[in-house]
Specification:
94 residues; mainly alpha; single chain
Length: 94
């Protein structure tokens, strides 16, 4: 089952909220992304910001597992949500 943009946005918002509540991981994201607290608050509903949070979480399997377990999401679905939020394109890092 594919995600609608609205459903993906809900998961993206859950990811942002989960990260905001993670006292250990939030400073790592803030340092890595250069985002300020204001940027973080303003990005809550922004699909681009949500995508950056998902990209960050997907850098470590333990982070994916922790987030997905907390919201009851199958692990592989996180990548599908990320693609929908980003407009459907895959990321090519090379």
């Amino acid at each position: 089952m594919g995600y609608t943009r609205e459903a993906a946005g809900m998961v993206g918002l859950q990811a942002v909220a989960w990260l905001a509540g993670n006292d250990e991981l939030l400073p790592v994201f803030m340092g890595a992304s250069g985002a300020s607290e204001t940027d973080f608050r303003q990005g809550l509903q922004d699909p681009g910001f949500q995508t950056s949070v998902l990209d960050f979480l997907m850098m470590d399997d333990a982070w994916v597992i922790a987030f997905c377990d907390s919201v009851g999401l199958d692990y592989p679905k996180l990548a599908e949500v990320r693609m929908v939020l980003a407009g459907g394109g895959e990321v090519h890092w090379t």
